[in-house]
Amino acid sequence: MHHFLIVIEKAKNSYSAYSPDLPGCIATGKTRELATQNMYEAIELHVQGLREDKLPVPKSRSYAEYLAVSA
Predict the structure, then answer these.
(1) Which residues have CB under 8 Å from 22's CB, separation 6+?
(2) Spatial CA neighbour of 47 closest among 15, 21, 9, 16
(3) CA 49 to chain centre
(4) Cβ neighbours around 20 below 10 Å, total
(5) Could you say which of 1, 31, 59, 60 is the most buried, measured as most Cβ atoms within 10 Å of its Cβ?
(6) Minimal CA–CA distance to 53: which of 45, 63, 41?
(7) For 55, which DSSP code?
(8) Following DSSP, what letter does each residue of 40-52 receive, concatenated?
(9) Alpha-carbon gap, residue 52 to 13, rounded angstroms
(10) pLDDT attached to residue 16
(11) Predicted pLDDT of residue 1
(12) C-alpha distances in Å from residue 2, one per residue of 9, 33, 40, 48, 57
């Protein structure tokens, strides 16, 4: 089982998602939940394609944190 960080961003009328550890693997959705589900499916296909091409599946190296900054 692999674990990948995904970043979800709010656009004007939808959401987009990507994984810093899987360049080119992106997804969108009308809601945050749909973008997350679509990203899950995109990652599954991406990893399957890597395996079919006999390429290594990258290890997750990304982390995310929120920082509180008082201005």
Answers:
(1) 4, 43, 46, 58
(2) 21
(3) 16
(4) 15
(5) 60
(6) 45
(7) -
(8) HHHHHHHHHHHHH
(9) 35
(10) 98
(11) 84
(12) 22, 20, 11, 12, 9
What is the reported pLDDT for 71? 82
Profile the chain (71 residues) by mean pLDDT over runs of 10 residues: 94 97 97 98 97 96 94 82
Question: What are the structure tokens assigned to 47, written together?
Answer: 């990893």
Count of CB atoms within 10 A of residue 55's CB? Answer: 10
What is the C-alpha to C-alpha distance for residues 67 and 16, in angstroms, rounded to an integer? 22
Q: How far is Cα 67 from Cα 31, in angstroms, rounded to an integer?
A: 25
Report which of 69, 15, 57 is spatially closest to residue 38, judged by C-alpha positions: 15
DSSP state of 60: P
Name the token pair of 28.
């969108």
- Adjacent-strand bridge partners of 17: 8, 27
Residues 6+ apart with CB under 8 A from 30: 13, 14, 15
